[in-house]
Amino acid sequence: MVYKLKKNIITIILVILSTQIANAKTIKILATSNWVSEAELELSKKFEEETGIKVEYELIKASDYRDTLTYYLNVGDTPDIFMGQSGYSDLLSYDIKETALDLSNQKWASRLDPLVAETSSLDGTLYGLTYSNISGSTRAINYNKTLFKKYNVDAPKSFKELKKACAIFNKAGIQPIYQPFADVWHQVLMFAELGPNYAAKTPDLAKTLNQNKATFLENQAMLKALYQIVDLYKADCFGKTALTDSNADLPKAFAQGDVAMAFTTITFYNSLKQLDANFDINSIGLFTHPLGDNKHLGINPAGPTKFVYAYGENQKEALHYLDFLTSKNNMETVLSHPKGKKSLPLINIKPNFPQYVIDFLDEYREKNGIVLQTAINYINPQWMDIGADISKMVQGNITPETVLRNIDIRRATAAIEAGDPAW
């Protein structure tokens, strides 16, 4: 009798366990590998341990990601959470009102940085969680203070001073600026991150461009910046191998003292520390890109963002996962992780930056603005096309005017396809 009872209890337990396994949920997330940190992957395992809900990341090659996401959204078989860049034109390209859940009432929504929330919203409705190193993705020229001191060079504050510094380093056999044209996307940053400078010189820049009352081609500040990029290239400011240089090789070149300057993120020090744990980050300095004698710092509140698919089978679990990621303890875990993000755009979460980066950001707290690709619609989707045009431009195959004209043509095409009433 006792044996029978024990056997029945064991049978009941096995049935319960098998039922739990059968009912176990799996959240699927679509992203690119460079959008998901190791710290986040570790958190997803912790989430599974605490909730029994498994998280699977489908990581797509960056160059193939937009096409893959478009395919999923078109066929209606999108993972529970899909990632994409935030920003007006990107949200339109995802048909976000139709494809994603309204997240405005989620408990973490009120803690999002207002600018970041705005770029993840459409017509006042929040659709995404930007779980990204927004402050850390701010770009400036990182320079080797040791080399600058050795050759008696001050941080340039104008285009003329930048060219003079390039000439000094070229004479010393040191590549002045690392500009990896081979990556195609990188050279666009020199042009687009100067959005605040263009806005300062062009009244109502974003408003007039987004309302189709102005063009890129007629903007003299933009045209000047492109001509100066050509000037830098011809003066070998980007070195002899700029067209074949790759961004992946930048940390090693910088750490070895082969290059004096690099226009990259203000958290570039992290890449150098990963390369060499003993690298002295205090040997790095920062200054804003002085094309067009720029005095502003470009801020990009847009970034890789998580959207919950409106027709997913696991919406409740997906929302639970976003709550989990935004808990104070879990965000602090991400920021303290050696390979984690250094900041997150939620209020009351202190960034994990060294003092020289904090000082630099403080210096430009009143002199910053939104970068071109976020302030102006229909720029981000044509990013690689602009990069290809800039490569042709520096080689003399097309003019700066043609680069701007092509941007206008592609913007008009995208706007018409999106049904934008301004076009």
CA radius of gyration is 24 Å
The CATH topology of the largest domain, please? D-Maltodextrin-Binding Protein, domain 2
Total number of helical segments? 20
Structural class comes to: alpha/beta
Oligomerization state: single chain
- Uncertain ranges: 1-23
Q: Between the first and last Cα atoms, what is the distance in angstroms? A: 83 Å
Helix % is 40-55%
- Give the CATH class of the largest domain: Alpha Beta
Which term fits the overall shape?
A: globular
Arrangement of strands in the largest sheet = 2-1-3-12-6
The CATH superfamily label of the largest domain reads Periplasmic binding protein-like II
How many strand units? 13
Describe the biggest sheet?
5 strands, mixed
The appropriate CATH architecture of the largest domain is: 3-Layer(aba) Sandwich
Determine the mean pLDDT. 91
Q: What percentage of amino acids are in beta strands? A: 5-15%
